Amino acid sequence: MADLEQVQSTLGIKFKDPALLELALIHSSFINERPGSGLVSNERLEFLGDAVLGLYIAEKLYLDFPNADEGELTRFRSLLVRRETLTRLAVSLDLGAFLYLGRGEEQSGGRAKPANLSRALEAVIAAVYLDQGCDRAARFIHRLFAGELERIETLASVADSKSRLQEIVQARFQATPAYTVVDVSDSDEPAFNAEVRVKSSYLGSGRGRSKKEAEAHAARQAIAALENSLHPGSPLLNLDSK
């Protein structure tokens, strides 16, 4: 059985009703191997946690990015609540070690399965919400997602770089930036390298977890290169004559 005191210590929350936390950790396979036990799985809590998390993230993005349109906000939200992100955060809490799993699920590596981990995290969020209330749940989510939210802020700031670079290049060279993206992902996480060129001349490169993020970083580097090209002797000055 899970050490609920250890789980609470890891989460940084003392539950009024530890049974809610325990319920959040019960996988359906555990129930299936115990017919007639009266136990239920964490699936209903997962349903609620998905909604609680979605509301918090939507409100946070709405307030933090007043200039972002609906499409940008939707993209940011999808990055934050996707399975890969939830799994990574669940691993950081070592949730897999505390799951109640059936024997078959345990033997098939269930403690490390992204689906089990991401769903358990949503169930834990729901348990915190029911036990501690809205404000405490919001603080828990904010603390848990702090690093991810910071990455979104960085992504939002560099995303504007592509538009700015295009304006500069069109005005100065009457051309359009061309991006080349290479997938360099490994088994752990996605990764992309991007290069941006104008009239075949290299301007910058960048790396990111998505193609758009890599292109945005490349664009920012290109802007810096073009600003430096205003100095005499810069090889990029030759672009003006192409």
What does this structure look like?
With about 240 residues, the protein is mainly alpha-helical. It has two domains: about 5-145, Ribonuclease III domain (Ribonuclease iii, N-terminal Endonuclease Domain, Chain A), CATH 1.10.1520; about 160-240, Double Stranded RNA Binding Domain. Helix content is about 60%, strand content about 10%. It has a three-stranded antiparallel β-sheet, with helices on one face. It is elongated.
Large-scale geometry: elongated
Radius of gyration: 23 Å
What is the arithmetic mean of pLDDT? 89
Number of domain modules: 2
Major β-sheet annotation: 3 strands, antiparallel
SSE ordering: HHHHHHHHHHEEEH
Unreliable stretches: 231-235
Structure annotation, total helices: 11
How many DSSP E strands?
Answer: 3
Short description:
This protein has 242 residues and is mainly α. The protein has eleven helices and three strands.
Strand and helix layout:
Blueprint: H1 4-11, H2 18-24, H3 28-32, H4 43-64, H5 70-81, H6 83-92, H7 103-107, H8 114-132, H9 134-144, H10 146-173, E1 178-183, E2 192-198, E3 201-208, H11 211-228
Antiparallel strand pairs: 1-2, 2-3
Helix pairs in contact: 2-8, 4-5, 4-8, 6-8, 8-9, 10-11
Properties at a glance:
242 residues, mainly alpha, Ribonuclease iii, N-terminal Endonuclease Domain, Chain A, Double Stranded RNA Binding Domain, 2 domains, 3-stranded antiparallel beta sheet, 11 helices, 3 strands, elongated, magnesium, rRNA binding
